[in-house]
Amino acid sequence: PDWASYTLGVFICLSCSGIHRNIPQVSKVKSVRLDAWEEAQVEFMASHGNDAARARFESKVPSFYYRPTPSDCQLLREQWIRAKYERQEFIYPEKQEPYSAGYREGFLWKRGRDNGQFLSRKFVLTEREGALKYFNRNDAKEPKAVMKIEHLNATFQPAKIGHPHGLQVTYLKDNSTRNIFIYHEDGKEIVDWFNALRAARFHYLQVAFPGASDADLVPKLSRNYLKEGYMEKTGPKQTEGFRKRWFTMDDRRLMYFKDPLDAFARGEVFIGSKESGYTVLHGFPPSTQGHHWPHGITIVTPDRKFLFACETESDQREWVAAFQKAVDRPMLPQEYAVEAHFKHKP
């Protein structure tokens, strides 16, 4: 790291230095190499340092709280830095109430399924009922949707949603995936919702898997997609032409949509392990026709072959790597149940 906060006594990377500059009342930043350092500032850095800051400012981070990585969106990194140093949420647990209480309600902007407009909707998260609900009207008695915590995932998708605070929530209904796209103008508010959902998932999994350690459960609280993007696909008989679709690889579910912001997948493909008869191949069977994009992928399942075409060789490489990752991983007992229930829509 080439930057340092000389008021906190920590070394930071370039991208985090910009966030630290935005909270000057807490953190004042200098370049390690380019700026002049006073003797007292050097001594302060020497007597503090990142380990000491972590011990103090991260002493009470809840297990479920999402710790961002360098590849995460700006919002998650900014709110982590603000929560840690500005609000000191991980020193004083009472400041964690917005995401640790087990109940949360408020208004979020939700994208309409048919018209694509974002409208204000009331959301209620209740751990006791194990659900996230939203209501079309403030005075509505019945929720428009009930999303079970058991099958819920949330992932920040600012580029796709077109808002820096955009959050995509997916849940299962009749064993098919449903998407909702939401945001809040206040960055803290939407990150609190995200961590409240993770907290609810954490407590649900603690009950469902009583012997599991926190380290086993935390990776299951929310998932980023293995890969997303456009490919072309053809139908089960492979006689009709290829059509361009938006694909999302979520764990073992490969879903395809006409538009990236569709509420429902047009279809889903389960990708099991090689032990169960799944294989990923570069290219197409010899007689394949009708594709515009040149770089083919064939997924062989116990029931049939799926053919996909990628526009570039690098796209093909990335998709094959994502599929191969799923195929190489042995299936868990609960995944056999998912495979058995899987209703593929051709």
Automatic annotation (TrEMBL):
A molecular-function term among this protein's GO annotations: phosphatidylinositol-3,4,5-trisphosphate binding
Matches recorded under SUPFAM superfamilies: ArfGap/RecO-like zinc finger, PH domain-like
Pfam families hit by this protein: ArfGap, PH
PH domain: residues covered: 101-202, 224-328
Gene Ontology cellular component terms for the protein in this record: cytoplasm; plasma membrane
Entries under Gene3D superfamilies matching the protein: Arf GTPase activating protein, Pleckstrin-homology domain (PH domain)/Phosphotyrosine-binding domain (PTB)
Domain Arf-GAP as annotated: residue spans: 1-98
Keywords: Cytoplasm, GTPase activation, Metal-binding, Repeat, Zinc, Zinc-finger
Subcellular location: Cytoplasm
PANTHER family in UniProt: ARF-GAP WITH DUAL PH DOMAIN-CONTAINING PROTEIN 1 (PTHR46021:SF5), ARF-GAP WITH DUAL PH DOMAIN-CONTAINING PROTEIN 1-LIKE PROTEIN (PTHR46021)
Protein name: ArfGAP with dual PH domains 1
Species of provenance: Pan paniscus
